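User: Before I run my own analysis I want an independent prediction to cross-check against. Here's the chain; please return only the C-alpha cells and, at the end, one sentence I can use as a sanity check.
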Amino acid sequence: MRQAGTIIASITVSVALVILILSFAIDINKVKLPSQANGTHTGYPVWHPPVSGTDKEEYAATIIYSVVLMIVAGFYAFKWTNFDAKTNSKLLTYFVDREVNKVPTIEFDRYLASYCLVTSLTGIIYYLIDIGKIWSTVGILHNVNEIIIMVSLHHGGRISSNSFMPWLILYVLFAGALSLYLEWPYDALWFKVQGLCSDYALVIQFTRLYFNTRKEYGHESHQRLFDPERTRHDNTSGENPVLESDTTEDRAFGYFRPDYTLLLLVLASSVHIIGNIFSTIWIYKLSSYLIFSFTYCITYPLYAYFVYLDTHTVAIPPAQKYIILPDNSTPKVYLVTVSSIFLSLLTAKLGVLNQ
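Assistant: C-alpha cells:
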C-alpha cells in the first residue's frame, strides 16, 4: 500500500513538474529580463539587478556577522567530534538502516562541521565580490557539501561507494561550466535552481529522518545530557568532588527525547531555504537579501548545536542512541528528487512572475 502511494505521488509530482517546465517555455518571450548590477568592489556584473534600499552598511554587517558565526560553529563542531570513541562509547550515536546495519554518526557530524566552514568561505567571497560568476567558483563548494551530506545518509551514514568521487567531480565541472558560460540571467537562474534543489532535498530528508526516529522511540525520554567537565560527588561522605572516580552516570543530567536533536536539522535546513526563497522571489528588494544573509546566522549554529547534542548525550539503558534512516528504495529516492526539482523550479517561477 505504501509503495502504491509513493508511485502515485511520484506520478503526480512528475506531471506537475512537466507542466511547470512547459510554463517556463511559454513565458520565456513574455518576461522582461532584469538589468544586471555591478559588484561593489570589482565592478564586474553580478547575479542580481540593482536593488532598492539605502542601508548597505547593515547588509554588509549581516554578511560579516554570519561569517563569524559560521566559523565559530564549524570550529566547535569539529572540536566536539574529537573524542576517544573507545573510552567514550556511550556517547556514540548510530545510524540504523532497514537492514539494521549500524554506522556511527561521527562522520556525519564532521560533514556538518565542514559544511559550516566551507559556507563561511563562500560568505567571505560574497562580501568581497558579491554573487556572480567569480563567486560561483567557490560557491559551488557549498552545494558540494550538501550533496555529501545527502549521499552519506543514502548510504547509511557513511559514503562507501568508490564511484561517488568521480560523479561529484563531474557535477562540479558540469554545474560550474554552466554557471560560468551561460549568459545573464540564465547563469544566475541555473545556479540558483540547482542550489535550491539540494536545499529542498535536505529539508525533505531531515524531516523524514525526524519522523522515522520519532516513530521508533515514541514519546519517552531515552537520553541524558553528558557534561565531561562535571565532577562526581560522593553523596555518602559529603566530601569534595572526587575527580578520579568520575563515571558517565555521575556526569549525566537532564532528560529529553532523542528525536528532539533531529528537529534542529529540520529547523536549520528550513530556515536556510526560507532565506533562499526570499532572495529568489523579491530580487529587487535589499531587505530580501538581508533576510537571506541573516538566516545563515541561525542555520549553521543550529547545525553545530546538533553536533554538540549528538556528541554529549548518553542513552538511558536499555535504550541506545539510534537515528533511524528513512527508506532509500528507488521509488522513494525518485520521489524526493523530483519533489526537490519541482519545488526549486516553482520558487524560480514565482521569482519570474514577480518581475
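Sanity check: The longest strand covers residues 252-256.
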